[in-house]
Amino acid sequence: MSGTGRTGSGHGRLGSVLSGLAVAVGCVLFLGGFVWGALLYQPYTVPTDSMSPTVEPGDRVLAQRIDGSEVRRGDVVVFTDKVWADAPMVKRVVGIGGDKVVCCDTEGRMTVNGEAVEEPYLRGEEPASPMGFTVSVPEGKLFLLGDERRTSVDSRSHLQEAGQGTVPRGAVSARLDAVAWPLGGFLERPRSFAALPGGISEPGPIRPVLASVALGAALILGGAAYGPLAKLAGRRKQPAARSSATADV
Predict the structure, then answer these.
(1) What gap in Å lies between CA 40 and CA 62, rounded to an integer?
(2) If residue 135 lies in a helix (H) or strand (E), which one and from where to where?
(3) How far apart, in whole angstroms, are the C-alpha atoms of residue 92 and residue 55?
(4) Which stretch of DSSP H or E encloses residue 246?
(5) Backbone angles phi, psi at 108, to 5 degrees
(6) Is CATH 2.10.109.10 correct for 43-202?
(7) Of 110, 123, 208, 231, whose CB count within 10 A is highest?
(8) Which residues cross the membrane (predicted)?
């Protein structure tokens, strides 16, 4: 009987050590993920429907902090420019310095440097823009459009101004990676821009950040639950042990 007691005690001590280790590792992953995310990402609430259906008004998005030099065609970015009401705005980059952006071709598509661009993020079968335009993007500038091309106030609204509605790369502060609430998933980079010089940007580290937070939370909950579950299991074994001892007598 004494041997059985030592075995049970040993198992209990091992379980306690493992549960404590799980909680400790979970805290590191959970808090580390949050700190990592806070350093790289900024939350932003989309104020208008100009980027529908990609993001809707009121959506809470996660935008990776980036430098303007990291921007590529197809990116959905947060930027602030005095000409654009001097307030943070969300638009899609469709042209960078040196590009010639034209709309529309005979099939209603926008072209960049003569290459037609398929835009699957637009609604239905509508043309890339209800109004035609031709823009030569100055070096160091960006040409931006909303995905809701019928009503979006974007670079097309500033075509008559200096720079033809373009904004400096330095105006960009972040690039959208995911819709956090309501749960909308990750924003994919449009492959239609990949063949153009410079290609498209790589996704930010949002997936490993979220994985770290989720795994950390699971380890913390699992480790914390071990003690109560072990005690409950012990209470259930005690009556069975007493019944066995009575039967032996």
Answers:
(1) 10
(2) strand 133-136
(3) 11
(4) helix 206-248
(5) 80, 20
(6) yes
(7) 110
(8) 21-41, 209-229
Residue 231 a catalytic site member? no
Per-domain boundaries in the chain: 14-38+209-230, 43-202
**Residue in 19, 52, 91, 155 annotated catalytic:** 91
| Bridge pairing between strands 141-145 and 89-96 | antiparallel
Tokens of 209: 């950040």
Instruction: Round to whole Å and give the CA distance between 199 and 73.
Output: 7
The tokens for 40 are: 């790289």
- The amino acid that residue 163 corresponds to is G
Give the DSSP letter string of 168-196: EGGGEEEEEEEEEETT-EEPPPPGGGTTS
Whether 50 is a known active-site residue: answer yes
